[in-house]
C-alpha cells in the first residue's frame, strides 16, 4: 500500500460517489446485470478469470461490472478477493486428453482422429459490423452443432510415436505456487508457465509476435489448439480416493517448433505449451510461443539477445497488476520528493550562473 500523505477524506468520498454514478450511467437505460455479462461478454470474463487466477465466471462478471469494463481493474479485484479465500487442498492435474472439445484444430495435420472441430470462432468471420445487434435482433441458431468428442488424442502423440518430437518432460516435483510465493529467479519451467498463464494478454502477444518476426529464431506450427471442458478431481484422505469436484473450461495449445539439434540432442521437433482458463486461444497460443522461446538454454540453443528469451525480462514485466500499481502510483502525491528535486535544480542553475527566466525577460 502506497501512503504518501494523509487527509482529503471528503474529496475521496466524493470521488467514490462520482465513480458509482459514472459506473451506473444514464438511469433511463436498463442496468447491465451480472448474468448478462457472464453470458454475453464471456471472452472478457474468461480473461479476467485467467489473469486473476480464479475460476469463477460470476465473480469475474461482477468485477467487470464494478470496474466499468476496465479488465485490468477487474483482474485486480479478483486477485484481491482470491487472497481472502481459505485453501482446503490441491486438485489433481487435469487430464486434457479427456477434454470434451467444443473446438479442436490442428495446423499440422488435416486428417486427425477425432476430426477438426471448428467450434465458435471469429476466424472465418468477415469482420463487418453487424447492425442487427444494435437493433437487439435475435441471433439465428446454428443449424447443427459439431459433435464434441468425449476423448480425442493429442496430435503431438503421432509425432512422438516416430520419435520426431521431444518427449514431454515429466517431473513429479511439486511446483512452487506463484499465488502464494513471490517470483524468484532462476525460474523453472513450471513456474514460468504459471507466470505466463496469468500474464497480461497484450504483453504476452507482443512477446510471441516478436519471436515470429525473428527475434528468437523460433518458427512454430500450431500442433493443436483445443477448447473444452475438463473434470477437476481432488483426493479426499478420509475416502482414500479422488472424487470429481466440478468441471472447468480451458484452452490448451501445443506448438511444434523446428530444432536442428545440439551436442546432446538429435534433430527433432520441440514443444511449446500454453494452458489458460476459459476460451482464450490468442493467449494460449502466445503463451506457447513464449514458453518455447524461454527454453533456449535447456535445449542447448544459442542466446541471441531476443527479449522473449530473457526470462527475467519477460516474467518480471508480464504481470499487469504489478505493472499497473507501479505505473499509477506516480499520479499520487509526491510533493516532498518533487520540492526537494526542484530546489536541487535551482541550486545547480545558480551554481552554473544561469539567469532566472523572469529576470532575463525584464
Could you characterize the architecture of this molecule?
This protein is an alpha+beta fold. The chain folds into two domains: 9-82, no CATH class; 96-122 and 143-324, no CATH class. The chain is 39% helix and 13% strand. The protein contains 14 helices and four strands. The protein has helices at residues 9-24, 34-40, 42-52, 57-66, 71-82, 131-134, 156-161, 189-197, 201-215, 281-294, 311-317, 320-328, 335-351, 357-361; strands at 100-105, 220-236, 241-257, 270-277. A four-stranded antiparallel beta sheet has the order 1-2-3-4. Strand 2 and strand 3 form a beta hairpin. Helix 2 packs across helix 4. The model is unreliable at 1-5 (pLDDT under 50). Its EC number is 2.7.8.37. It holds the Pfam family PhnI. Keywords: Transferase. InterPro entries: PhnI. This is Alpha-D-ribose 1-methylphosphonate 5-triphosphate synthase subunit PhnI.
Helix-strand blueprint:
Blueprint: H1 9-24, H2 34-40, H3 42-52, H4 57-66, H5 71-82, E1 100-105, H6 131-134, H7 156-161, H8 189-197, H9 201-215, E2 220-236, E3 241-257, E4 270-277, H10 281-294, H11 311-317, H12 320-328, H13 335-351, H14 357-361
Antiparallel strand pairs: 1-2, 2-3, 3-4
Amino acid at each position: 500500500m502506497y501512503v504518501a500523505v494523509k487527509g482529503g477524506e471528503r474529496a475521496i468520498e466524493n470521488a467514490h460517489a462520482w465513480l458509482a454514478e459514472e459506473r451506473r450511467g444514464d438511469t433511463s437505460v436498463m442496468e447491465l446485470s451480472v448474468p448478462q455479462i457472464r453470458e454475453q461478454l464471456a471472452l472478457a470474463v474468461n480473461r479476467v478469470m485467467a489473469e486473476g487466477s480464479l475460476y469463477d465466471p460470476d465473480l469475474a462478471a461482477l468485477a467487470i461490472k464494478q470496474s466499468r469494463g476496465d479488465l485490468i481493474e477487474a483482474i485486480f479485484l479478483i486477485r484481491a478477493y482470491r487472497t481472502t479465500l481459505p485453501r482446503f487442498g490441491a486438485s489433481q492435474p487435469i487430464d486434457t486428453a479427456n477434454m470434451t472439445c467444443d473446438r479442436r484444430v490442428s495446423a499440422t495435420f488435416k486428417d486427425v482422429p477425432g476430426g477438426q472441430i471448428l467450434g465458435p470462432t471469429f476466424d472465418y468471420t468477415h469482420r463487418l459490423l453487424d447492425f442487427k445487434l444494435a437493433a437487439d435482433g435475435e441471433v439465428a441458431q446454428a443449424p447443427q452443432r459439431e459433435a464434441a468428442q468425449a476423448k480425442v488424442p493429442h496430435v503431438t502423440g503421432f509425432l512422438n510415436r516416430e520419435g520426431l518430437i521431444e518427449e514431454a518432460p515429466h517431473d513429479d516435483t511439486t511446483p512452487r505456487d506463484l499465488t502464494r510465493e513471490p517470483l524468484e529467479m532462476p525460474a523453472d519451467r513450471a513456474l514460468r508457465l504459471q507466470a505466463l498463464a496469468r500474464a497480461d494478454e497484450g504483453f504476452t502477444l507482443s512477446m510471441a509476435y516478436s519471436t515470429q518476426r525473428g527475434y528468437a529464431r523460433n518458427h512454430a506450427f500450431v500442433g493443436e489448439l483445443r477448447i473444452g471442458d475438463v473434470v477437476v478431481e481432488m483426493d479426499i484422505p478420509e475416502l482414500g480416493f479422488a472424487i470429481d469436484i466440478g468441471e472447468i473450461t480451458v484452452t490448451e495449445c501445443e506448438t511444434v517448433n523446428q530444432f536442428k539439434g545440439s551436442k546432446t540432442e538429435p534433430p527433432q521437433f520441440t514443444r511449446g505449451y500454453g494452458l489458460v482458463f476459459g476460451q482464450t486461444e490468442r493467449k494460449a497460443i502466445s503463451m506457447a510461443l513464449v514458453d518455447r522461446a524461454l527454453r533456449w538454454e535447456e535445449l542447448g540453443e544459442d542466446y541471441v539477445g531476443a527479449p522473449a528469451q530473457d526470462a527475467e525480462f519477460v516474467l518480471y514485466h508480464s504481470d499487469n497488476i504489478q505493472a499497473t500499481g507501479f505505473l499509477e502510483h506516480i499520479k499520487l502525491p509526491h510533493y516532498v520528493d518533487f520540492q526537494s528535486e526542484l530546489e536541487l535544480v535551482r541550486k545547480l542553475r545558480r551554481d552554473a550562473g544561469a539567469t532566472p527566466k523572469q529576470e532575463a525577460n525584464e
